[in-house]
Every structure is written in C-alpha cells, then in structure tokens.
C-alpha cells in the first residue's frame, strides 16, 4: 500500500479564506491497478487488487460533501469544487474560499459547477448563478465575469457549466445561453448562440461540456441539442442528433461528457442512454448501455465523466452506478 502525499507549502494569512484544523499527511491510499496507473507499474490490474480510499468529508475540513469538480494544478495543489465553496488541499490542510458579499474580490458564488487550470496557471471556475471567475495567484483575488443584459460583450449567462482551454490558450465557456469565447485583451466575450434560421449555428444554447480534439475541433455537448462539432476557423457547427429511426445515430440528445482516446476514437457520455463511441469516418455511433442481465455491461446509462489512463483503459464515472473500468481489449466493463 502506498500513500500519495502533497506537501506544498501554503501561506495561511489569506483574505476571505477560512482554515480547517485537519492535519492529515495522506491524501489517499492506492493499491493494485490505481497504483500502476499513477506510477507506471503495468503488472497490477484492477481485477487483481483493491482500490482503497481515504474519505475526506466535512468532518475532516472539506467545505461541503458534494464534489462537482477536482483538479491538481501545476504546483501540486488539489482544488475541489463543491456546492458550498472552493477547497484547496496541500497535503496537510484544506483552505476554503467562499463568497463574501461586501468583498467584490471574493468568489462570486459558492456553487461551483466546473473548473480548469490554464497554461498560465490561472484557475477558472464556472458557477451556478454567479457567472465565471478566475483566481489571480499573484493578488490572491477572484475576478468575476457576469452577464449584463445591456452589454452584448458580457458573458451570455451566469450559469456556467463547461470550460475548455484550446491549444492556442483561448478560454471557451459553455453556459445556459450558448457558447462564449473570452477575449483577454478586452475582457469581453464573443457569443455563439442557436439561431433556428441558420443551420450552421450551435444546435442548443444549453452547453454541458466542451472538448478539443487533436485536430483542433471543439466538440460541444448540449442539453437537448445533441453533439456539435465546431470549427473555430470557419465558425460553423455540425450537429449530431438522435434519430429514433437510425440505430447508428447518437444515443441521446443530452450529452454530459466527451473524450478522445489515443486511437482517435471519440467517446460520448449521455445522461439518459449510456456511452457512445463515434466513428468519424463512417459517421456511425456504437452504443454501450446497461444490461441488467449482463454483469460486464455498463453499470448505469447516466455517464458524467470519461478518462483514459496510461494503459489505454477508460474510466467512466456515472450518476448512481459508481465507477466503471472499460477494457478495450475485452470490451467488458468492471464496476466499482
């Protein structure tokens, strides 16, 4: 059993930050397959070992127990987004950032839906009702971007569900009122919205996820509008929607996650009808769904997250069905 420790020093004298008394040196324990993924030991397997978790809840200093996003930044800190504040874990303590009404440099909203770190080391956060925030490490302050009905250059909505930095360092923002591109020189946003009279616009304004593939295309999952392939050069969207008459169409129009594996396959997680693999050449979607009679099938049809590990296995997070490991060689799912 191996303990993974994060021992980055933290200055504790922060404005608008509350501190927890937890002094745990161990962030989590890993054995078997998970150890092999992190440290390159290819002899271990998930089927032959256990993944042991150390639980960290509000009792240990976490601000809230519903976690919606986790990243490890370029300095080694673990950032944890919850429904009640942002947490930074340094291997010893949780540092909690929350909204403070009289302080405009605090977090705009405690309910954080999504989070990324950009190439410059800036942490970007999308909130439920508080718009977009980024954290300035130099000043240790949050900068806010909120929708202003009078300013067409403002962010299009204050519900931000998706963030993506492309290869050029541009920040793309998915909201409940369309796709936005942030322009750092002006602090303004370019909006991309659905227009029923223009077929090449985004299929739905409710953007759930954004993913850039190897060719530079942005794949945008929506609520109700299926999947979009967006070419930033031509500014045009291609739509992929479910067709009940076509079994090879995308499984659902409600898309939660997108991932491209090392072989170039595009994987799409839906909230209602399982996991899809997209063959771009043929335009065909291959479906993976839960089958109660098959213990090696996907454990739930509500797929929230997808990640490929060093051994080219896919880890699939679901709502209500736990964690799945997909082995492309056996085409079977192993559930935790």
Structure description:
With 336 residues, this protein is mostly beta strands. It is built from one helix and 27 strands. The strands form seven sheets. Strands 2-7-6-5-4 form a five-stranded antiparallel sheet, with no helix packed on it. Strands 8-9-10-11 form a four-stranded antiparallel sheet, with no helix packed on it. A hairpin with a 4-residue loop joins strand 14 (178-183) and strand 15. The protein is globular, with a radius of gyration of 21 Å. The relative contact order is 0.08. Residues 1-48 have low confidence and may be disordered.
Mean pLDDT: 87
Number of H- or I-type helical stretches: 1
Side-by-side strand order of the widest sheet? 2-7-6-5-4
- How many whole angstroms does the radius of gyration measure? 21 Å
Shape: globular
Which percent bin holds the helix content?
under 10%
Largest sheet: 5 strands, antiparallel
Helix-strand pattern: EEEHEEEEEEEEEEEEEEEEEEEEEEEE
Assess the beta-strand content as a share of residues. 35-45%
Provide the low-confidence segments as ranges. Answer: 1-48
- Beginning-to-end CA distance, first to last residue: 19 Å
The total beta strand count reads 27
Structural class: mainly beta
């Amino acid at each position: 059993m191996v303990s993974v420790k994060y021992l980055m020093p933290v200055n504790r004298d922060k404005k608008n930050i509350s501190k927890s008394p937890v002094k745990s040196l161990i962030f989590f324990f890993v054995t078997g397959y998970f150890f092999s993924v992190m440290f390159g030991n290819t002899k271990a397997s998930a089927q032959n070992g256990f993944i042991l978790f150390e639980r960290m809840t509000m009792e240990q200093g976490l601000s809230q127990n519903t976690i919606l996003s986790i990243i490890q930044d370029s300095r080694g800190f673990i950032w944890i987004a919850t429904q009640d504040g942002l947490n930074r874990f340094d291997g010893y303590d949780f540092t909690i950032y929350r909204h403070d009404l009289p302080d405009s440099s605090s977090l705009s909203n405690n309910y954080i839906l999504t989070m990324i770190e950009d190439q410059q080391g800036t942490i970007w956060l999308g909130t439920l009702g508080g718009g977009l925030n980024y954290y300035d490490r130099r000043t240790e302050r949050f900068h806010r971007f909120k929708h202003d009905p009078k300013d067409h250059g403002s962010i299009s909505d204050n519900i931000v569900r998706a963030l993506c930095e492309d290869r050029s360092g541009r920040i793309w923002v998915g909201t409940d009122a369309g796709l936005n591109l942030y322009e750092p020189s002006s602090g303004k946003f370019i909006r991309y919205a659905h227009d029923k009279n223009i077929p090449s616009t985004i299929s739905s304004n409710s953007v759930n996820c954004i993913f850039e593939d190897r060719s530079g295309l942005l794949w945008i999952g929506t609520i109700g509008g299926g999947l979009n392939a967006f070419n930033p050069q031509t500014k045009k969207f291609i739509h992929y929607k479910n067709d009940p008459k076509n079994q090879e169409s995308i499984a659902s129009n409600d898309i939660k996650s997108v991932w491209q594996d090392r072989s170039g396959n595009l994987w799409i997680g839906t909230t209602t009808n399982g996991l899809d693999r997209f063959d771009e050449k043929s335009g065909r979607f291959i479906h993976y769904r839960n089958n109660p009679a098959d213990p090696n099938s996907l454990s739930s049809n509500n797929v929230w997250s997808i990640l490929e590990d060093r051994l080219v296995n896919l880890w699939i997070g679901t709502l209500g069905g736990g964690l799945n490991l997909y082995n492309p060689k056996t085409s079977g799912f192993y559930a935790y």
